[in-house]
Amino acid sequence: MGKRNSKPALEGDEKFMEKFSPGSTRYLRLWKKIHDFDGKLTESSCNNLVNKLKIEVASASDKEKPQKQLQLLEAMKWREQAEKRKRNIQKKQSRKQEKAALQAAILVKPDEETVGPSVGVRQMHRRQRRTQERQLRDEEQRQASPASSPTLGDAKVDPEGWVERHKQLVNSYGLNGWEIEQTLKKSLTYNFGRVKAGYTGRNCQGQILPTEDQALQAQLQLVHNAVKETWKRTPDYVKISQCRQKDNEDVFEFRARLEDTFKDHIQFLCDSGADRTVLRDRIPRVGPSKDKIMVHSANGQLNVSYFSKPLTVKDLNTGKQDNTQVVLCPECPVNILGQDLMTKLKISIVPTSRGMVATNIESVEDTLLAEGLEVHYYWSLDSPNPDPTETGKHLLHIAMEDSDQYHVTLRYKETPEPDVEYDKSINKLGPQKVTLSHLYMDRRGFAGCSAKLTPQAYKQFTVWDSVPHISLMKPEKADWKDVGQFVKRAVAITAWQQLPDGWSIDMERWSVYRKTLGWVVNATP
């Protein structure tokens, strides 16, 4: 049960005033009782209330006057809203009257009565348009007659093709900065803001740049690069993973299919004439580093390019990979796989019956050239060059001889026929660890390094008049196989005299010098 004097819920104008001005309804009961106020936002009732309260304020005592003044202020708020409502009602009524008068002025005639007058109206409009077109200023233009307008395609679907077609359009018509901007807006529409890259087509004075201006070409190149980067196609890894070599499929056919699969992502051109690998396309999350390089382009111009941050390049055929930096050069027409990665990934360009083919060094077919001479085979464990441990550099420094390749000869075949069975056993070895024990030199000019092989590799060693070694230097009239005989005799020496500089000399003939190494290097068959 509620109280007898509980306040009733507000409705209509009372609810509006309480929401508009909280507290403006607190005197509402008193006004209804004394001044017969109906609580409506009408101008007449609100004016009567305000006038009555003004009289009460004037005749009230000093004690009652503050209370009467508060009532007068609240009543004036009611009157203000009532006047505002009346003005809004009058505006709506005037708009309705204008609309009704306009509709009444339109005279609707039957179809047969409107044909003649409408023809005259159309002719009048036509004459007005001609007059306006003749009055156009020089910088204004009017729309030309419709003609065939081939599109540039969708940049979001084929960004590379879109860029090439846009370049052809600009070069064919010799467009200036303002005209190029119009083609970009026409083709890219609202996406132009995403790839604008600060393009203005004007110089710092606000003048439109001509078509051959270098500043305009630089601005346009930034837009093209932004298009390629914004809508760069991502590789289809599902499609790549499904590309497997079929049964009895030739390795070159499989490689061609695999290259077609990778064309959607990044495709490299093997170039044995390039020193460094060059990447034209950007790779997500791989940006440039602080390292720079001067690139000598085909036209003879020198440009500064940046190296990328270290990234991992992997050959899916062999599983070989290398963590390196590549040159970032968007101006390069293709991605180039240079000598640096071709060497580390064991990729070589070889001539075949099908032309020049990039393949793995391990799978290269034997190519022999002979001219009236017998062809001999030899098998060896090669020390990599360049080697991460710089084995060759140290050996060169110690032996004082310039040599490009270092190897341990395992077998030398006197007859020219190949040995297939020995080939299979050598290929099964795989990478080997070779220990370089001692470096030997004599006064005649021989220099060699004795090598200790693993048991598996030593089983393949068949040179009867030598020991496992690396040939470093020989006299001019001697053969390289004589170095092996020299190392074999030096290894057999047991009496050595230590010298102050770290070398030792044999105590029998005092002609052979030895230096202890103890290096362990990697070698591959």
Write the layout of secondary structure elements.
Blueprint: H1 12-20, H2 28-34, H3 43-59, H4 65-105, H5 111-134, H6 159-173, H7 177-188, H8 214-230, H9 237-241, H10 251-262, E1 268-270, E2 278-279, E3 288-296, E4 302-308, E5 311-314, E6 321-324, E7 327-328, E8 335-337, H11 339-344, E9 347-352, E10 355-360, E11 378-383, H12 391-399, E12 406-412, H13 420-427, E13 432-442, E14 447-452, H14 455-458, E15 469-473, H15 481-492, E16 496-498, E17 504-506, E18 512-523
Parallel strand pairs: 1-8, 2-7
Antiparallel strand pairs: 3-4, 4-7, 5-6, 9-10, 11-12, 13-14, 13-18, 14-15, 16-17, 17-18
Organism: Channa striata
Domain Peptidase A2: 266-341
Biased composition (Basic and acidic residues): 130-142
Protein architecture, described:
Keywords: Hydrolase. This is Peptidase A2 domain-containing protein. Residues 266-341 form the Peptidase A2 domain. Residues 113-160 are annotated as: Disordered. This protein has 4 domains: 12-86, no CATH class; 159-230, no CATH class; 266-362, Cathepsin D, subunit A, domain 1, CATH 2.40.70.10; 373-523, 2',3'-cyclic nucleotide 3'-phosphodiesterase superfamily (2',3'-cyclic nucleotide 3'-phosphodiesterase fold), CATH 3.90.1740.10. Helices cover 38% and strands 19% of the residues. The chain has helices at residues 12-20, 28-34, 43-59, 65-105, 111-134, 159-173, 177-188, 214-230, 237-241, 251-262, 339-344, 391-399, 420-427, 455-458, 481-492; strands at 268-270, 278-279, 288-296, 302-308, 311-314, 321-324, 327-328, 335-337, 347-352, 355-360, 378-383, 406-412, 432-442, 447-452, 469-473, 496-498, 504-506, 512-523. The strands form 6 sheets. A 6-stranded antiparallel β-sheet has the order 15-14-13-18-17-16, sandwiched between helices. A 4-stranded mixed β-sheet has the order 2-7-4-3, with no helix packed on it. A hairpin with a 4-residue loop joins β13 and β14. α3 packs antiparallel against α4 (65-105). The radius of gyration is 48 Å and the shape is elongated. The protein starts with 11 loop residues before the first helix and ends with a strand.
